[in-house]
Amino acid sequence: MGAMFSKELVSSKNKYLHHFTHRHTLKLVSEGWFICNACRLLGMGLRYRCNELCDWDIHETCAAGPEVLSTHIHPDHQLNLTWTKGNPDEHLVKRGRCGVCDEYVNGRLFYSCPFCSRKRVGFFLHPTCSTLPPLVNHPIDKNHPLAWQSGPQTWCTICRKRCPIWHYRCEPCSVDVHFECAC
């Protein structure tokens, strides 16, 4: 587990990047849909890509993630960026579910809580999920920002589907919104 982290910008405009997850120089591109080879989640738009016969992509968010993360999503402990070496198909091993989106963390790049892991509870987070803000201004509630919170499962005011435990909410207006619908 873990690796020596090195992110070296090749140009000052961030068009090229040497990243510890890949052996070739990566170029910033912004076309179409892709699967991130680091976290294994679907992405669209900006990403770093290797064109050295690799067909290798990484979210801009995954490439820029700090080694240690303090976040409102897991406020009691800092999270460590983890890169697992080994077989590229190692992402097929399910480590646990992301603390935000509740999808399995199947990729080789993710955040984990060392304290919760020792207690066998485990807390995992996709790098892209780590960027959700604590408050969101949204047209669904023009009077109050929506706050990131956990609570009982409710229904999303926008799409009418079930909200997971973590979602955005305006308490005074009783408005609940999926993070996907809010951002």
From TrEMBL:
Keywords per UniProt: Repeat
Location of the DC1 domain: 20-63, 73-129, 144-182
Annotated protein name in UniProt: DC1 domain-containing protein
Species: Papaver somniferum
